[in-house]
Amino acid sequence: MEALLTAAGDRLGAYHERLARLVAVDTGSGQVQGLREAADLVQTWCLAAGMAVEREAVADPAGAPLGDVLVARRRGPGRRRILLAGHLDTVFPPGTAAARPLRMHDGRAYGPGVSDDKGGLLAGLAAVEVLAALGREEYAELVLVCTPDEEIGSPGSRPVLRTLGSEADVALCLECARDNGDLVSARKGVADLEITLRGRAAHAGIEPERGANALLAAARLTVALDALNGRWPGVTVNVGVLEAGGRPNVVADRARMLVDLRAWRTAEYAAALAEIRRLVAEPAVTGVRAELAVHAPTPPWEPGPEDRWLTELAGKVGAGLGVPVSHTATGGCADANLLAEAGATVLDGLGPIGGDDHSPAEWLDLDSVVPRVALLAGLIDEVARR
């Protein structure tokens, strides 16, 4: 265990340098040039670590390019296939990297994506290097996957993740630990819903009876959807956007709603989605039709016995390193959900400690890098040997 901490410490300087270079590139979802530039950097570092690298360009369902999925592999003599999963994309617009380059202050690093997920991704690569340096490579194959579209539900990366997840015995996901140090042992499922309502325009003063008000139908549907909160334990339905109408003297002939559905359990997720479909099919205003589109549906990650075994094993490795390990469930979804759906045993939050993701205050705890890289490397080693 001491050797793991020492080897992780030996790579801290390289980690800082890589983090600065990666954070200096704008990689918001859909910013293909920056995402490919960042993938080029990771590819160079993976090749230097003795990994074989494959790249595949991916696109969204409409055909718009999203960047490249990078898959790096290192083979060993063992029997277990272990997957490390991280992502390159962030939520920030072009120009953010120049406006907020990596800054280190009072033991923390700040910058776009420093915690979500560039710091975690680099911790995965550092763990690969630690095990290689120590000659502790008892796995059959260690795979690092870097996706360009996790922040928008991985619409282009899903086929690759499905394949990798089905091949892996264990998937260790590199989202950073919660701000209190917790690993992530379960995630809610999420569906992004788009509802389009079409009515009939009319003069609001002269002949309103000839109209069919899509705005009114959307308002009533909003109330009906909000009433679903609390019907099933842990299910939340949030109407985040309602757009309708153009002029006050015209009966609105069109409306659009964007809705967020989340649930802890697959059965409740399916039941809530079915009820939403029923409500959409029965608009509350005569003459108004509604259509529902479900974008990037991501099922809940419900931990089973194997997932709980992996969480307990992480705790034992942490105890040997003197690194406290606790875990929690979170309402946010990630690629861990998709890997669990594909059949892998999953544990998430294995990057360094970080917080304030998706905000200008996003931070990474620099003192946590060495112990968390050692924890990840130790967990890989234990899984491979068992």
Automatic annotation (TrEMBL):
Keyword Metal-binding carried by entry: yes
Q: Which InterPro entries match?
A: ArgE/DapE_CS, Bact_exopeptidase_dim_dom, Pept_M20_glutamate_carboxypep, Peptidase_M20, Peptidase_M20_dimer, Peptidase_M20A
Active-site residue list = D89, E150 (proton acceptor)
UniProt cofactor(s) = Zn(2+)
Q: Name one GO molecular function term.
A: carboxypeptidase activity
* Parts forming coiled coils: none
Peptidase M20 dimerisation domain: which residues?
A: 186-285
Going by the UniProt record, its keywords in alphabetical order are: Carboxypeptidase, Hydrolase, Metal-binding, Protease, Zinc
Question: What Pfam family does this protein match (any one)?
Answer: M20_dimer
What is the protein name given in its UniProt record? Answer: Glutamate carboxypeptidase
